[in-house]
Every structure is written in C-alpha cells, then in structure tokens.
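Q: What structure does this chain adopt?
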Amino acid sequence: MKSPEPLPKPKITAAAIAELLTQLRQGSASGATSSETNAALRRVMEIYCVVKAGGVQVQQEAAQAHLTRETANIKAAIAALQGQGADQQITSLRQELADLEQTVHWRLTLLQAIHPDEERVVSQYLSSLEAEFQQPSKPDSRP
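A:
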C-alpha cells in the first residue's frame, strides 16, 4: 500500500488571516484589492466553508458516504435494466457513475489539501471573518 503523501506546508496562518482582514478593510475602504489578497481570500473561503460544514473529517466522511450510497443506487438501476434492451439508459447510467466518481475524487482531493493547521486557524478566526464578510460593501466612489 502506498504511503500517503505529506501535507503541504500550511498557506493560511494566523498572521496571514490577520493581514488578510487588514487588507480587506483597507481594500473595501479604497475599493481595491490585490490579486494576492484575492487568492488568499479564495483559500480562506474554501477552508471557511469546510469548517462551517463540520470540518475536513466530517466532509470526507460525507463524500465517501455519498459515493457509496449513489454508487449502489446506480449499480442497482443498471442491474434492473440489464437484458431489457435499455442499452442507451445503461450507457447513461455508467457515465453518471463515472462522473460521480470523478466529482467525489475531486472533492476528496480538495479536502486532503487542507492542512490541519489551516483548518484550526480558520476555526479560531471564524467570528472575525464572519464579522468582516457581513460588512456591507461600500459603493465605488470613483467617477
């Protein structure tokens, strides 16, 4: 059995979130944010959504359960159609199964890329992040 690859170094740290919050406040005041700020915000939001939905482990378990349940349903539908001249429907169901497997693999890969330290620090900053995200955006004051 192949050993799991080591997790990448966490990109999101407490200092990075504090800096992001500062940049967001300054950016919302001026109406501008940098591409680095946008990339950091995107990463924080990915982790934030996972944390709000129960965390990495819960989401991994949910994805696996979904895959197991839906795979069984699709395979049962295929089995029920076997020998009934429903080749086109069977082909569609096989494609649906392949799409399901690909989507769940993508989701699990995304979840595995979240370092436990990133999950922890985003959890610690949840209230600060939520307070910032709930601020009404200021209209652009430029002409």
